[in-house]
DNA sequence: CACTCCCGCCAATTA
DNA sequence: TAATTGGCGGGAGTG
């Protein structure tokens, strides 16, 4: 077919331009008709083709011509005419009608030009299972010319293939064809990553939102995983990548592709709707909600889907949901992979992944590959590991297993986040307000916020968690006395507070993210504690400075009340100190009851979910932690630091900000709050901006980062509100909820009214310890555990204030807080630098090492997830 | 009209 | 600086 087309087309114009021109020309082209007779089949019947055969044909035929043509295109255009004219066309031209029709046919219909088809052609050129020994190099230029397409299109294909390790980039314009040998491994990795992440979420969701689940469940699940996935992938693979280009690549098709695939692998149904996937991806990316972004994401997903379809991994289907029929894709590729994890992590993954990529260049790769590299890479590694680095990071290779672990944790975190987002999104959608996120005026900021949150938070969190025990908690404190945390603690809030992890609230759909705001630091908090921290916060803030305010305002609402009350003073102080944890919340009361209540009463589902969640997390975490530790000592440290930072940040940010003054408050914590409008099924998330930083810090391991403190609240519950986290409480909590949790404890939250519903609370920090504890030493491990969620009931106390008002109202609000304060909080180890960089903006930092990554990531915010991941990974020192 | 998604501008990166 | 990559979104093709 192609050939035909080519013959016709190619002669004329190579590719693009033609359409229009062609039309005219086409008229001319008639000649082709003669020629094309064959063509008939071409367009219309894509399927039929045999990829290879056609390809070959095309190639053979086209290649020569095509190449030239493309290049010539422009030239040709003019020429085309001539050419065409040359041919009988002119005559035909006359003929027009008939000819024209043919043209049309011939004319490359859109379908013919589709990326999927192009991909098939591309794939046809290479053996699915090339001899392991030999490597086939692919020249982009050559392929482009052969296939008669713009190079740009080839990039689209190659990027997706690269994400699956079917090819790897060797050098400029040069890719190495690996074939599908590694595909299963790659898929395993992705699946694992996805599962880890989303698994928890899944459970969580499932329990709670069964309803949603029905429809959404899958989605959510998927979504969750996705989010995680992204990161995971990123981490593992990205590490390198991230380093180099956080910015662009984060959003890259490559990453999106991996995430997308992860979703499928995670999904029970194996069906992923585009919208869900888009949402998920956006989340990760942080982008947000904008409709435009959504559209863009969808476009990209189509691009990816076309390639995956060509690979025979998915097929288009339609899913009928509430809203109606939605386009979706079903996974038709392999579902089970034998070794998955082990291999992946152990070696196979890498080998597979890497290998695939191949970069033989990077011998070192493995090491490099590992997540950390990125981080380190930046700084130290760059030089050291050129391999990948040189490459571009290739993208994602799955590099190291370790990373994966981290990733897992992270992913979990992420998943949660993702879930939240999804919910949010859903809510938004459903509800009247489509884009909840967008809702916030902050959009820009918003993005940041979001990004930051997720990214920073999650990743960070994980790392921390794993390594540190969440936040603060235990590990950090215990483990790292030296850490800032302690100091903070003194201030008033225990370190733990600062750490705070997550809170999950049952009901409604709010999402709050809290971050420390720069402002805080600015304003009030003098950087005392940790300049760095502050800075970091600032940095973050900086990025979106504008945003901050915005957010703050919105958010303010929420927490503010509660926060204000409590915190104000304390908070500020804390902030200064750096802590501030989640004061937002409130709650002392909560403590008490919460735990208990939560567990039992609360409920219900949510509680359960949470718990489950915890469990899940914990286990993985722990393992990961261990692994990581073993593997990466650095990371752990970093993580710790991060965690600390986070904690502090979180805490600080958490509270205050929101409530009161939002933006400017002394410290505003940054929160990201999202309300789901509609029905949210809800989750509410509360993140503290602070965390992000922390998270960032984590970077060390790519993964890790659960530490982030987040609070998720179910929308429903929100109404009541509830949650608060107070450091103090934490302890209580810990005891209450799970043991695990308690230890860490930092988290506290109380839910007020909601109790019943299910407030869930997840605290990273606190929890950690206990379970993990064993490994206390390694903070990391503990950390994971930390994540646990503990459901808490909140009493209605203070918490309510916070949220309810504000939160509830808006569909979504994100606040980004940067919270500098936090940094201060836990200054610990954290390197200031990072934070700064981290926060700062992307560019600014120049920091060395970690920064880079972090910065990059952050800077970009955009790509939130990835970056986060990256960031986290970065940490290493 | 909605869904797809091609096309290619142009920014980010790299050489 | 030039070339390579690749994000992004307009807007056209398709149903």
From TrEMBL:
Residues 537-549 have a biased composition (Low complexity). It is found in: Nucleus. Residues 856-877 have a biased composition (Polar residues). It comes from the Eukaryota. Keywords: Activator, Cell cycle, DNA-binding, Nucleus, Repressor, Transcription, Transcription regulation. It holds the Pfam family WHD_E2F_TDP. The keyword DNA-binding applies. Residues 1-88, 342-408, 474-498, 522-554, 623-664, 844-877 are annotated as: Disordered. One of its GO terms (cellular component) is RNA polymerase II transcription regulator complex. Residues 110-179, 248-333 form the E2F/DP family winged-helix DNA-binding domain. Residues 65-77, 638-659 have a biased composition (Basic and acidic residues). One of its GO terms (biological process) is sprouting angiogenesis. GO terms for molecular function: DNA-binding transcription factor activity, RNA polymerase II-specific; RNA polymerase II cis-regulatory region sequence-specific DNA binding. Belongs to the E2F/DP family. This is Transcription factor E2F7. It comes from Chloroceryle aenea. The lineage of its organism: Eukaryota, Metazoa, Chordata, Craniata, Vertebrata. The gene is E2f7.
């Amino acid at each position: 077919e192609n050939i035909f087309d080519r013959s016709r087309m190619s002669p004329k114009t190579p590719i693009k331009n033609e359409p229009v021109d062609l039309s005219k020309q086409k008229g001319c082209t008639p000649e082709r008709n003669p020629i094309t007779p064959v063509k008939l089949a071409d367009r219309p019947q894509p399927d039929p083709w045999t990829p290879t055969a056609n390809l070959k044909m095309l190639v053979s035929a086209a290649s020569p011509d095509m190449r030239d043509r493309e290049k010539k295109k422009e030239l040709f255009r003019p020429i085309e005419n001539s050419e065409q004219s040359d041919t009988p066309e002119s005559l035909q031209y006359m003929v027009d009608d008939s000819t024209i029709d043919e043209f049309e046919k011939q004319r490359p219909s859109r379908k013919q030009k589709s990326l999927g088809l192009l991909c098939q052609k591309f794939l046809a050129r290479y053996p699915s299972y090339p001899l392991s020994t030999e490597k086939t190099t692919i020249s982009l230029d050559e392929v482009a010319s052969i296939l008669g397409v713009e190079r740009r299109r080839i990039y689209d294909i190659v990027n997706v293939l690269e994400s699956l390790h079917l090819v790897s980039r060797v050098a400029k314009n040069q890719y190495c064809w690996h074939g599908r040998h590694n595909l299963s491994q790659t898929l395993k990795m992705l699946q694992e990553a996805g599962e880890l992440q989303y698994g928890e979420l899944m459970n969580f969701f499932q329990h709670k939102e069964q309803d949603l689940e029905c429809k959404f469940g899958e989605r959510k699940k998927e979504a969750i995983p996705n989010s995680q996935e992204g990161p995971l992938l990123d981490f593992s693979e990205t590490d390198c990548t991230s380093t180099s280009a956080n910015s662009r690549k984060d959003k890259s098709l490559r990453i999106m592709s991996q995430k997308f695939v992860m979703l499928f692998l995670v999904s029970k149904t194996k069906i992923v709707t585009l919208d869900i996937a888009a949402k998920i991806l956006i989340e990760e990316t942080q982008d947000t909600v904008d409709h435009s972004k959504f559209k863009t994401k969808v476009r990209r997903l189509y691009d990816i889907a076309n390639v995956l379809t060509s690979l025979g991994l998915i097929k288009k289907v339609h899913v009928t949901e509430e809203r109606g029929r939605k386009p979706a894709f079903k996974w038709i590729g392999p579902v089970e992979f034998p070794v998955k994890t082990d291999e992946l992590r152990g070696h196979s993954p890498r080998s597979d992944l890497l290998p695939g990529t191949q970069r033989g260049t990077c011998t070192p790769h493995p090491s490099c590959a590992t997540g950390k590299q990125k981080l380190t890479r930046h700084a130290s590694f760059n030089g050291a590991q050129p391999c990948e680095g040189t490459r571009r990071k290739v993208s994602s290779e799955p590099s190291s297993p370790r990373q994966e672990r981290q990733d897992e944790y992270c992913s979990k975190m992420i998943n949660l986040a993702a879930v939240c987002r999804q919910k949010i999104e859903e809510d938004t959608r459903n509800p009247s307000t489509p884009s909840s996120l967008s809702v916030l005026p902050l959009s820009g900021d918003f993005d940041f916020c979001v990004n930051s949150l997720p990214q920073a938070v999650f990743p960070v969190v994980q790392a921390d968690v794993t390594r540190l025990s969440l936040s603060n908690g235990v590990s950090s404190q215990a483990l790292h006395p030296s850490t800032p945390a302690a100091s903070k603690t003194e201030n008033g809030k225990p370190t733990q507070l600062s750490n705070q992890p997550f809170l999950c609230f049952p009901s409604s759909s709010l999402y709050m993210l809290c971050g420390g705001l720069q402002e805080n630091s600015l304003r009030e908090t003098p950087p005392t504690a940790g300049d760095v921290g502050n800075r970091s916060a600032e940095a973050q803030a900086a990025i979106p400075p504008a945003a901050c305010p915005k957010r703050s305002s919105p958010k303010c609402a929420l927490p503010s009340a509660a926060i204000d009350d409590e915190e104000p003073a304390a908070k500020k102080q804390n902030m200064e100190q750096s802590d501030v944890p989640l004061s937002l919340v409130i709650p002392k009361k909560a403590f008490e009851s919460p735990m208990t209540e939560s567990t039992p009463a609360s409920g219900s589902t949510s509680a359960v979910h949470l718990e489950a969640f915890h469990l899940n997390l914990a286990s993985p975490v722990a393992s990961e932690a261990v692994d990581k530790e073993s593997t990466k000592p650095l990371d752990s440290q970093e993580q710790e630091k991060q965690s600390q930072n986070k904690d502090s940040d979180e805490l600080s940010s958490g509270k205050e900000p929101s409530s009161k003054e939002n933006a400017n408050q002394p410290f505003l914590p940054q929160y990201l709050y999202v309300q789901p409008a509609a029905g949210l099924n809800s989750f509410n998330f509360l993140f503290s901006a602070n965390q992000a930083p922390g998270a960032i810090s984590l970077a060390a391991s790519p993964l890790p980062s659960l530490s982030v403190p987040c609070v998720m609240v179910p929308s429903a519950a929100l109404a009541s509100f509830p949650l608060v986290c107070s450091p103090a409480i934490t302890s209580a909590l810990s005891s209450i909820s799970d043991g695990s949790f308690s230890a860490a404890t930092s988290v506290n939250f109380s839910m007020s009214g909601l109790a019943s519903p299910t407030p869930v609370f997840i605290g990273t920090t606190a929890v950690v310890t206990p379970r993990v504890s064993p490994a206390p030493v390694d903070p990391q491990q503990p950390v994971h555990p930390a994540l646990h969620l503990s459901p808490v009931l909140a009493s209605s106390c203070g918490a309510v204030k916070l949220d309810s008002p504000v939160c509830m109202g808006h569909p979504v609000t994100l606040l980004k807080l940067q919270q500098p304060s936090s940094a201060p909080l836990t200054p610990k180890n954290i390197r200031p630098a990072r934070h700064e960089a981290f926060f700062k903006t992307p560019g600014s930092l120049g920091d060395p090492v970690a920064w880079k990554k972090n910065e990059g990531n952050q800077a970009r915010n955009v790509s939130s997830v990835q970056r986060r991941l990256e960031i986290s990974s970065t940490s290493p020192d």
